[in-house]
Amino acid sequence: MSAEVEKNLKATVEYLSVEIGQRSYLDIDKLNASAGYIEDRLSSCGLKIRRQEFSYEGNTYYNIIGEKEGDEDEAALIIGAHYDTVIGTPGADDNASGVAGLLEIARLSMHMPSKRPLKFAAFCLEEPPHFRTSKMGSFVYAKSLKEQKAKVFGMISLEMIGFYTEKEGSQFYPLPFFRWFYPDKGNFIAFVGNPASKRFTKAMEKAFRNASDLPVESLNAPSVVPGVDFSDHSSFWKMGYHAFMITDTAFYRNPNYHASGDTADTLNYKNMAKLVTGLSKIICTI
Hints:
The protein is built from 7 helices and 8 strands. It is α/β, with parallel strands linked by helices. It has one domain: Zn peptidases (Aminopeptidase), CATH 3.40.630. The chain has an 8-stranded mixed sheet with strand order 1-2-4-3-5-8-6-7, with helices on both faces. Helix 1 packs across helix 7, helix 2 runs parallel beside helix 3 and helix 5 packs across helix 7 (269-283).
């Protein structure tokens, strides 16, 4: 199974970052092509698909949501990733890797019974100039859930999950003393949330450790720590939901962050496969 998962992850990253390429808010046709690809892939998993349309400066953008049914009495678990990029990058790690992970987790989870409803959401407009604003696709979606009084167990944001290295001193942190507690090699995946989401984050971390041999570290800290709120999970915090980000730590590790060098050949698909395989096991049981 691992070889198949790796193959699928790589195919998605290459399609988004090579065949489509830059997917900034200015590239409407490319964003629409990405949305169509994601919609087709989620639909092929047997999920119920919904397009959420929203506007910005006269243009129309889309969130794509695939829903898997579960016990209606249970609150839903949301797994999300953004498919747009900044200008000037093909966005392999940021964030074709997260979208690839989202699609593969959706595919794998369809073979397992779910305790609760699962929602797989692909967001647009995460990157600047919309970053950390109400214009983000994830904010639009989270706000709609709040307005509908939807029951949400928690949200997991897949934000750059493909870059790993065994090089000593390759891992950096927002504050110097973090090095006393965390590895100096960028060979792990990180679960990052706010203090209010600590119980949710820790429960998922514990379950993941039992499901995968990929090294994992976690942090729950306020937004004053740089990077803690740098993805779609922060939109859900604003609506009062528990949420955290799964990340390779982005610019604290990946030298290609927001640059033209963020290409498909720089990613570690074996570790990505370990991550998504482990996550697919635990999201159906949590």
